[in-house]
Structures are given as C-alpha cells and as structure tokens.
Write a structure and sequence with these properties.
The protein is α+β, with helices and mostly antiparallel strands. 43% of the residues lie in helices and 17% in strands. It has 2 domains: 25-145, Winged helix-like DNA-binding domain superfamily/Winged helix DNA-binding domain (Arc Repressor Mutant, subunit A, Orthogonal Bundle), CATH 1.10.10; 154-310, 2-Layer Sandwich (Beta-Lactamase), CATH 3.30.450.40.
C-alpha cells in the first residue's frame, strides 16, 4: 500500500519506471532498472553516488572507506567503480563491453574485467556475446529486503497529472542525488523531459524532491549526507538545515528556481506505511509570484482526488 502526504490513499499497480534510456518500452526491464535505483539507495546512499555524472573524476577522491568520527560518508574507489559499471550496464539496452567500460571510466581494462567477472559470478551482470547487461541480483535483493519501488503506474501518473493540471514526476533519492523514475502529463518545458525519461541525476539540495526526501531520511544518515554535501555546497546545506523543521512539519518541499530559474516545483511524499519511499513533484514554468498559490491548489486537488478514490 502506497500513500501520498501521509494519508492511506492507495496508488495501485507496479511499473513506474517505464521510460528507460529516453524511450517508452514495456516488459520487466523497466522494473528491474527502477529496482536497481532503489536497491542502490541503501548501498550507494552510503557513499553518495553521482548517478549520471562523470565518475572518472571522482575515483581519486576520499579513497578511505567508512565514516569519520563526525559520521561523514567517504567514497571508496572500488565501490564507486562497481556501482558505475552496474549503472552503465543498466543504461545500455544492448549491453556494454569491457573495452567500452574501461574507456568511459578511464581505467585499465584488466581492472574492469576483474570487477565484471565478479559481478557476473554473483548475478549482478549477465554476459551475452561478450556484452554485459544488468542481471537479476538487484531484483532478488530487493525481494529479500522487502524494498519496493513506489508502485504508481504510468496510467495513474497521467491521471494525477490531469487532476493536478501540471506535469507530475515520480522521484526517489539515490545517494546524494534525486532521480526521476517516471513522469505523467506533458511538460511545457521540453528540455526537462530527458531528466525523467533518462533518469538523470539532480542535486538533492537544489530540487524540491531532493530536499523532501533528504528531510525524511534517517537522522543519522541525513547527518552524514549533509556533512558530505557541505564540502561542496555549504550555503545550500546551511539553508536546508534552517528549512528542515518546516519541511518535516508540512510534509511539503518547494523549489523556486533552485535547479532551473524557469521552474517552480512542489514535492509531496509517497509513503509505504510510515516510510517515505519517494516523492511526487508538481512543476510549472515560473512567470511571477502566482506559481506558489497555483501549485498549492494543484497539490490540494491531487490529495482530494486520491482521498476520493478510497471511498
């Protein structure tokens, strides 16, 4: 059962991630990719994975693993490379070769081959004609852990967008990034479409969804993530800490041009029982001061629609 805004409104169906690699498709690949993202929240979130950003520049940073006495999550070169290989395989419809991985990572092919061999042996990758694609292991681990992708279908997202009168994005946190799993409705700002369709990383503190999801992250983990974020964007961290009590109290987060000067956004939580598993993001083009009230009304219509569906 998945609820929005902490209510017990049921949002049924299974496959929210149905636009991988920039194109609509069908079948189980979409769900496995979405489950990989959610699986990595628990694993990759400890090190702050950069998702679609350039990893080769990060391999030499913070090589010491573990946490400092202040709870900071430090990067680990081998873990970074393993996670990067998994995502590269997940994003390549026809699979990827060791040579391609080594070239993209700027790493020795022999090192990449050793990691790939281990990932194949444990089911995280599958090999076919010397090309590697995502294996079933992330899906199985999610089943064991009982972790699920927020279960909102494409049809439901489209309906939510129709009711709200705005595009709606389904978003999860992956390490230090917010990643859109799917979108409903037509976006009036075309350049934003690939952010959802290609599941591109967005900075947590510069997006409404990222701020909401970080606000409802476990307190100890949130502290470590903020310590890491403060190394790169101390002003954003300071502002978020000031806003945190209000976000948690209202269960709403806003962005007025934080990530894009032309976009206003409002995020509300998607929950599974007491746990916030994702966020629904409503977006509009910024034209003046009226967007805040307009998005408030859109969120109210959305909640009323969901509650009405329960009766």
């Amino acid at each position: 059962m998945v609820a929005v805004l902490g209510q017990a409104a049921i949002l049924p169906n299974l496959n929210p991630c149905n636009q991988p690699w920039g194109a609509r498709s069908s079948g189980s690949t979409d769900l496995v990719f979405a489950e990989l993202l959610v699986f990595l929240v628990g694993w990759w979130g400890r090190i702050g994975g950069p998702c679609r950003r350039d990893r080769s520049a990060t391999y030499n940073k913070d090589k010491a693993g573990g946490m400092s006495e202040h709870g900071r999550r430090r990067r680990h070169r081998t873990v970074d490379r393993v996670v990067w290989i998994l995502e590269a395989a997940a994003r390549a419809p026809g699979g990827v070769t060791v040579a391609e991985l080594a070239r993209m990572a700027g790493a020795p092919a022999s090192s990449v081959q050793d990691l790939v061999n281990g990932l194949v042996a444990t089911g995280f990758l599958l090999e076919q004609r010397r090309r590697f694609r995502l294996g079933p292991a992330p899906h199985v681990l999610n089943l064991i852990a009982g972790r699920v992708v927020p279960r909102i279908s494409q049809a439901e997202l489209n309906e939510l967008s129709r009711v709200a009168g705005t595009p709606v994005l389904l978003t999860v946190r992956v390490g230090l990034d917010a990643v859109h799993l799917a979108r409903g409705g037509e976006d009036e700002i075309p350049r934003l479409v690939p952010l959802a369709d290609e599941h591109m990383a967005r900075p947590l503190l510069r997006t409404a969804a990222g701020r909401l999801l970080l606000a409802f992250t476990d307190e100890a983990e949130r502290r470590g993530l903020l310590d890491e974020l403060a190394r790169h964007d101390p002003e954003a961290v300071a502002e978020f800490r000031r806003a945190l009590p209000g976000i948690r109290a209202s269960r709403i987060s806003r962005s007025e041009g934080l990530a894009d000067p032309e976009v206003s956004a409002l995020a509300i939580p998607v929950t599974d029982g007491p746990v916030v598993t994702g966020a629904l993001v409503l977006t509009q083009r910024r034209r003046g001061r009226s967007e805040r009230l307009s998005l408030d009304r859109a969120a109210a219509r959305l909640l009323a629609h969901i509650q009405e569906g329960r009766t």
